[in-house]
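Quick note —
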Amino acid sequence: MGKVNLEYFFARRIAAEKGGRTNMVMVRVATISVAIGLAVMIISLSIIFGFKKEITDNLTGFMSHVQIKHYDDRDPLEARPISSDQPFIDAIQKLPHFKKLNRYALKSGIIKGEEVIDGILLKGVGADYDWSFFEKNLAEGTLPVVSDSARNKNALISQGLASQMRLGIGDRMELMFIQDPPRTDRFTVSGIYHTDLTDLDNIMILTDIRNVQRLNNWSSSEISGFEVTADDFSFIETFSYDIFALLNSMSKEITEPLVVIDLKENNPLIFDWLDTHDLNAVIIIVIMLLVAVFNMIAALLIILLEKTQFIGIMKSLGMKTFTIQKIFIARSSYIVLKGMLFGNIIGLALCFIQEKTGILKLDAEGYFLSKIPVYIDWFYIILLNAGVFVSIIILLTIPTTIVSGIRPEKTIRFE
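Predicted structure written out below.
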């Protein structure tokens, strides 16, 4: 016969017993408390991860992870070009976490509508540009055709800008550029996109890089800079530093003063705002954990009081205090695991519903997103479950210390 685990055996027997009415009520309250607490933790964590991922993906679509440009390129009205033929390009492509690199050129200007005018930023891209972000957010029309063979004057504008200027697919839009001498140019709207980053949506227009080079009076080898994207945003700071170190090591071969700036440095306020969500997540998790632990302790104390006679009998038979404590910890673990099972089902189900339907909306002006985003990171969900279970069980060892104060000669006769 196999060895019987006494703690597990007695814990199962205690769990199988109905117990008093108060016992049953408190067990249900504790189970519900753990379930609701864990569900709230999962939802909170998924929403915070969703915010970070969606906003980061949108910003990356507009700016990439890292930009390499002229050190003095601060004034958009006086763009400083750099050469597109740089000695570091091949070396960057061999760096860890490298994903893609493309050239770009910028030109600030003004768009003129029938009744209004507004400031815009014309971004020129080449055949090496990855259009996947704008393809995903394309509201109507088609993306501008950009190739090395022929230049066209098609442009991609945002839905907000198109609505404001009363432009549709195939319409011609007039852009004005403040320079010496001032000049105007016309582009054809080939496509209209929409993201929830309104501030960028309302100024960014994309076209062939050669259109911007011509407007800036640049040669075909002059550009505003390079956009470099890593394969994982979590490595952006390391990746940016690697690029900086590479350029620094090749300083003798590079003839222009260049600066390396990553997405976080370009958007410090947004990322500071996102970082505050981490503190919110910690506060929510701690509060929910404390509520669950409080109810679990209350349930465990009631179970201990109802089983005072059982404890006395076990002690009189020679069972050690620590072994008796483990019996009640094992009993509590059943309650915790049951609550966690329901908590995972509720939390993940609500996350999946929001992810698929987007039923809960947001004000895009204030939150940069039009619906509450959800991203389920299974690693952190598993880590959260493990952390919650271990934390509750460790804290439940405190009330079980009353077992040491129970005396067999008094409690065996206890009714």
